[in-house]
Specification:
Blueprint: E1 3-7, E2 10-15, E3 18-23, E4 52-55, E5 61-62, E6 75-77, E7 84-85, E8 98-100, E9 107-108, E10 121-123, E11 130-131, E12 144-146, E13 153-154, E14 167-171, H1 177-181, E15 187-191, E16 230-231, H2 237-242, E17 244-248, E18 251-255, E19 259-260, E20 279-282, E21 288-289, E22 302-304, E23 311-312, E24 321-325, E25 328-336, E26 339-344, E27 370-373, H3 381-391, E28 395-398
Parallel strand pairs: 3-4, 4-6, 5-7, 7-9, 8-10, 9-11, 11-13, 12-14, 14-15, 18-20, 19-21, 20-22, 21-23, 26-27, 27-28
Antiparallel strand pairs: 1-2, 2-3, 16-17, 17-18, 24-25, 25-26
């Protein structure tokens, strides 16, 4: 029997043709993709022999690309403890015809069920508040879908190239129409009270391909409203006693602690505002922002940092990327104790072009004392122009 670990407190094992995930807490994120097979899940080589996946109670997230390309899986069991389904978690699960999501799920990630060509029936529970871009794209057998009343954000092209999709029921007054209609001919049916979801009749499936659009950003609307601050409830006692936050006029203000942690998705204090945030203000006294702490703030455009911030973890913000080739984000930056570091995105192929294309770290200039460029990253003219104008005389190192 093959087995191993897939999270701090999670284990996996293959029992016959069944892959079983057990334990408590979050699953690791993995890095498979359409164009690469970099750092896949530890069970990736079992994808051709696995027909059933059981995620036991206690598991809180399914990681990015966790079951990517499991083309023979027909049965998936989701626990009541699950809060998040990661990006591409079931991408290319061609044989999966039906899945029942539990009432604990809050987020369905980018392309989570993309290219599940046989998927005919999926229930999106009322607990879901966020459905990301392309989440059900190329589900060619899907005939109807219902967006539950509690959803706050529907990403772009959620049902793109769903060729059999006839109708989409959605809550009225949320502005979802554009994203729901992209790439399909389904009839959009608004509702005030959610209609029942009917299980469609199975239909033959044909493969298709898709192209993913780059992320769009929106301008920030200024506000004069004075925010109020609230204490945060968290599993980390020291953070819960000190962290303060407020949200007003598309602006999130966070402070009161030396370290801003990366909260589990279900415990993000500003969760219901997550996809309205266009500006983040970090309060004085904050010294470190943990990796991925704000990476779900996909509309972020402006960031204000105090001089006290010395460390910004990998991909802490959606604006951490500074290189993109053909829509693929290939280079990101972080701050390591005052050192600006440009790094290759491990999600893309090692043969990719790791050229920078922007200087998205400019708001952190006062926090930078030196620069390091990881081996393989190729700075463009914009980088050198910025460096000469702003940081002439600062230490720069290339590679190891």
């Amino acid at each position: 029997m093959q087995s191993g670990t897939c999270g701090k407190n999670l284990r996996w094992e293959l029992n016959g043709d069944t892959l079983i995930i057990s334990g408590t807490g979050e699953m690791e994120n993995y890095q498979c993709g359409i164009r690469s097979r970099t750092a896949p899940a530890p069970w990736f080589d079992l994808s051709g022999s696995t027909k059933k996946i059981i995620v036991n109670d206690g598991v809180t997230t399914i990681g990015n690309s966790a079951f990517y390309n499991f083309t023979k899986v027909t049965d998936v069991k989701i626990p009541n403890s699950l809060t998040k389904i990661g990006d591409g978690a079931f991408f290319y699960c061609w044989s999966l015809k039906e899945i029942q999501l539990s009432d604990s799920v809050l987020k369905i990630g980018n392309r989570a069920f993309g290219s599940c060509w046989a998927l005919m029936y999926v229930t999106i529970p009322n607990s879901v508040v966020h459905i990301d871009d392309w989440a059900f794209s190329s589900c060619e057998s899907l005939k109807s879908a219902t967006i539950p009343a509690n959803v706050l954000k529907v990403g772009e092209s959620v049902f793109a190239t769903c060729l059999s999709l006839k109708e989409i029921h959605y809550p009225a007054g949320r502005g979802f129409e554009k994203n729901l209609s992209q790439g399909n001919n389904a009839k959009l049916i608004p509702y005030n009270v959610a209609p029942p979801v009917n299980k469609p009749t199975p239909q033959p499936v044909k493969p298709t391909t898709q192209t993913v659009d780059a992320t769009k950003f929106y301008p920030v609307q200024p506000t004069k409203q004075q925010p109020k601050f609230y204490p945060v409830q968290s599993t980390t006692k020291t953070v819960a006693e000190k962290l303060t936050w407020s949200f007003a006029g598309k602006t999130l203000t966070v402070g009161g602690v030396r370290v801003i942690e990366n909260f589990p998705y279900a415990q993000i204090p500003w969760l219901k505002h997550l996809h309205d945030i266009q500006r983040i203000i970090i309060g004085n006294g904050v010294e470190k922002i943990s990796p991925h702490a704000f990476d779900d703030c996909t509309r972020l455009e402006i960031l204000e940092l105090p001089a006290s911030v010395k460390t910004i973890g990998d991909m802490a913000f959606s604006v951490s990327f500074c290189g993109s080739i053909n829509g693929i984000k290939n280079v990101f930056w972080c701050l390591e104790d005052g050192v600006l570091v440009l790094k290759k995105n491990p999600d893309v192929s090692p043969a990719a072009d790791f050229s920078t294309g922007s200087i998205s770290w400019v708001f952190a200039e006062k926090n930078i004392r030196s620069i390091k460029i990881e081996d393989g990253v190729k700075p463009t003219g914009k980088f050198f122009e910025w460096m000469v104008q702003r940081f002439n005389g600062k230490e720069i190192s290339f590679g190891e």
